[in-house]
């Protein structure tokens, strides 16, 4: 018994097991005209404390029954998605009312995605970036004209709000991957903005995952082999412009997912709104002291021409995004922060902080998992699994060791040595790990080209070998990959039914590998160089965990 790898030609979507059960969705109806008009007016007047509760009441009416959920037009949903992260509603204001509106918008969209499908509710259209700027500009020009067209007058979704037009997230961001890159830059360089962007990303990933699985179920249940439904998924649309492009263009997706807050990454994925990372404006201090005398004859105009110097521009410009300045770095808080402290000293990230807090790692893994899922279901829509994992390998193998280790061995799997990385299914993780291992292993390791990893293959091709170089970091990476494969074999029950001699062969190979890697980098304490302590700890701890697993086999 072994772990099947994913071959270059992936199976049809109808043959792929679902990632998770499909929830029971309610039918959707448009809001009644009178209620829609009232909600639209409230949104246009920025009376969010009235509009959002009304929308929430409409969508939750009849909960637990077969009654449909009443949902507003797509434009309203896009506006609410913008409110979640817009700086004027969150980190650039001290208004509790605006903060509450941003949180209410998030809660509403989360609930909407839970009880309705993204396709029926319009969420998959509300979160689209393609042509959003041009379409919104067209609507704006039409509204400002003296005579409205018949089409506009009949459009129930039109909404006159700055958050639906020039301030909209979907009008200011180039595409979804520009948002992903900037959000992950914030996880390292601007923690106060990350507190909001992570909420938006988590919501969007929920929609992407549910939308993809819902379409998969429809195809599976109908017995169809047509991938058009998957092609219409929101994730496929986010990738559509990359399908016919070269590898270098596709690398932009990986750079976005692995954005690290350094200047190169900030240049490629700059802030979405101008001055987005600035703190709220300080309230002007009341002027004290005697008032100056007003004497027009003598040219003394008193305080009339004294002006504050806070006339800064806050309107975002989508056409000329500028790289943001690094904000202060603060430890993450359990409560989302909207008011950064401008006096916090700026410190460079440590090795463990190069890619942000654990919440950032979790969301990065979810994106990689989503891409893997789509490539398995429909290889022609972006990349087939082998090419996708080759792209992953190109970027993951050069990550700092703590980050590399965290991508393959999550906190759950390191505290429970019998578990595998929950972000990937076993075949995907086995294939990816082997692709990461191939360029790292010494030339003494025989080439492995089979389609299913067995304990015997593991013992012969991977377990007993060190890295090709004497670098402690490279050998620690090899140790991490070998540990992942061992966990996968154990988790899949590959050791059950093996004879004692076969199990002993695996134990011997793993033990040889642990010793070989330590000897390759010098072995003794005296040979360790400054700065290698972390890599040595990864190497040592991995060996101990593998011995524990072998004791359970």
TrEMBL record:
List where Basic and acidic residues composition bias occurs: 273-295
Q: Where is the composition biased (Acidic residues)?
A: 297-311
Q: Where is this region: Disordered?
A: 1-23, 129-158, 269-360
Low complexity bias: where? 313-322, 329-341, 349-360
What is the designated name of this protein?
Answer: Uncharacterized protein
Q: Which organism is it from?
A: Cladosporium halotolerans
